[in-house]
Amino acid sequence: MEIATRTVGQATVVDATGPLKLGQAAETYRAAIEQLLEAGSKNLAINLASVPELDSTGIGELLRTHAAAKTAGGKCVFFSLCDRVRRTLEMVRMEKILALADDEASALAAF
Fold it and tell me: How many Cβ atoms sit within 10 Å of the Cβ of residue 28?
């Protein structure tokens, strides 16, 4: 998994690329999110457009990101999910917990 970040207004946009699964990918994602939060980023917009799939570990990482941003006094919005990832999250009813947006503009409007 590759992670790139950029600041847009009050939010840090995280562009994730690659499957978010058990192993190195999940570790890379978690380390990047922890580093952002430690550096003071509170509002995270996570771009999942280039994440073709995720497993239960990936779902756990999304929940961890959501909780960590909330604990830091901010918010986390996931956007541009591919159909497979969106269906996976809907199967386990994560759309009721996680903030999901169709595109970057919609995600940034949430902050």
Answer: 16
